[in-house]
Design brief:
This protein is of the alpha/beta class and 289 residues long. It has one domain: Aldolase class I (TIM Barrel, Alpha-Beta Barrel), CATH 3.20.20. The chain is 38% helix and 13% strand. It is globular, with a radius of gyration of 18 Å. The chain starts with 14 loop residues before the first helix and ends with a helix.
Length: 289
């Protein structure tokens, strides 16, 4: 793997706080994408008492070559106690904003939509003032399943684009660029009060023009919030990093995104889809629906 540049180095976390979060997660038998996907911001987020919960996992039914989540294990049956355990974690961590994501569960008829709903409802019941963001898979284009999730009224519906159209077959071999755009467009049409969000990784061989085209495509389907971050190779088995993009390029993409009309563009080398996701609470005050 290529040596990381200076701007990708992260501060040492406050391990006492990190340990506290991990203790709660282990006590409640919960998974986080922070750990399963080897996120570089795990120290900062855990130190701040935040986490992105990974439900229905940790085994995924897809094998995307950029992702460090396990796909070799057999997916397990859904655990009916998971939503309540997740809600307890949100309460114990005193979260103002929670992100709930999942592995792909293409083995389930609804892609896991019902479990998302149960988790949303459990958090609403336990922590009614906590805003909820769901980061969902593409559900194999099952739009009835999407409607089920949106009917539970999450505050934010997030679905990552991940890469530009030309690289989709390489990066997301079981995904479809147009299906991602359609999911976001349908979300806006079905539930206009729900904020939509997506994220893009860079450094996989895309061009500046292709990134800008993807940003334009996302705005065309009404996407409100965009994250842009540097792809980092988890292991030697994963896709190589083709380039490390300097911070000033992220600044240029942020400015371009703002000119397109995104309500918020978070772009930096260490940005991930759920990084500083709690900032959406302020966004909702500025642009109420």
């Amino acid at each position: 793997m290529t040596v990381k540049p200076q701007w990708l180095r992260v501060k040492a976390p406050q391990w006492e706080r990190v340990g506290n979060v991990k203790e709660i997660l282990r006590d409640l038998s919960l998974n986080t994408v922070c750990e399963e996907a080897s996120c570089p911001n795990i120290g900062e987020c855990f130190s701040a008492g935040t986490a992105t919960f990974l439900i229905m996992g940790p085994a995924c039914t897809r094998a995307c070559p950029y992702c460090d989540i396990d796909f070799e294990k057999k997916p397990q049956a859904l655990d009916p106690t998971e939503p309540e355990r997740l809600a307890q974690a949100v309460q114990r961590l005193k979260l103002n904003h929670v992100v709930i994501t999942s592995v792909n569960r293409d083995d389930l008829p609804d892609g896991g939509a019902s479990q998302f709903v149960e988790c949303i409802q459990a958090v609403r019941s336990t922590m009614p003032d906590t805003t909820i963001e769901v980061l969902i898979p593409d559900l194999c284009g099952n739009w009835q399943a999407l409607e089920i999730i949106l009917a539970a009224k999450p505050d934010v519906l997030n679905h990552n684009t991940e890469t530009v159209k030309r690289l989709y077959r390489k990066v997301r071999p079981q995904g479809k660029y147009d299906r991602t755009l359609e999911l976001l467009q349908r979300s806006r049409e079905i539930a206009p009060a729900v904020y939509t969000k997506s994220g893009i990784m860079v450094g996989l061989g895309e061009t500046d023009a292709e990134i800008r085209e993807a940003m334009q495509d996302l705005r065309a389907v009404g996407c409100d919030i965009l994250t842009v971050g540097q792809y980092l190779q988890p292991t030697q088995k994963h896709l190589n990093v083709e380039s490390f993009v300097p911070p000033e390029q992220f600044d240029a993409w942020r400015e371009f995104g703002e000119s397109l009309g995104f309500l918020q563009v978070v772009a930096s080398p260490l940005t991930r889809s759920s990084y500083h996701a709690e900032q959406v609470r302020e966004l909702m005050k500025l642009y109420p629906r």
